[in-house]
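Entry for LXDSK4UY complex. Fields follow.
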Amino acid sequence: MPAPHNPFKAALNAGEMQLGCWLGLADPYVAEISAHAGFDWLLLDGEHAPNDLRSLLAQAQVIAASNSHAVVRPVIGETWMIKQLLDAGIQSLLVPMVESAEQARELVAAVTYPPHGVRGVGSALARASQFSGIPDYLQTAREEICLLVQVENRKGMAALDEILEVDGIDGVFIGPSDLAADMGHIGKAGHPDVKAAVLDALKRIKAAGKAPGILTLDPEMQKECAEIGVTFLATDIDVTLFAKAIRGSAAAAKALRK
Ligand SMILES: O=C(O)C(=O)C[C@H](O)[C@@H](O)CO
């Protein structure tokens, strides 16, 4: 019995566009609502949301009962963080702030058991192996792990071609917000220079045979990304959806006041 099949990774490998939503409310109740909304994948943000291993695990557990797939973004690509997330049963990772091929190779090693990698062997007590319920987990785990990296500054963009040559990286996400900041246009992810750099990078990722990914709330940019063949496209954020809705609700309520 092998490690659980990763349908998200399989879809990326087949070039099938996967539509996702960013989850930053860091709550399993919200994750459960989101999991049944119809998105192919849900990004559990460990970088910019108040998540820790336990909260990420709780959200992944409720998502596992749906047709959505949990993709976890750790705070940074530290080997020990990746080890804990993989043992918790996370099979798809989006690692932020990748700037070099060397860093990409280290991340591939972090998701690979020895002798070809450095992932610690602890599957005997891990959710990932269904608590030793999967006899062949150690031999089959790597194939079902989807490793995505974020390129989101000028250094990473300059190294993109080398990063794309690293075996074991399944896809590259371009981070418009951080890239805009590093390009001197902080808060302006839609700046023409930023947009041009993002679209060019996404085309290069596609041409290299890797899965291109992005988060954009801009409908026009979403259409352009779909036309390019972006394979993992996040189109919304739970935090902004809720904040906008509840502010609108409060405003409507206040309008009742004489
Ligand atoms: O740089 C980006 O854009 C991203 O990596 C996504 C952001 O971190 C996300 O929080 C939306 O702003």
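NOTE: The first strand starts at residue 18 and ends at 23.
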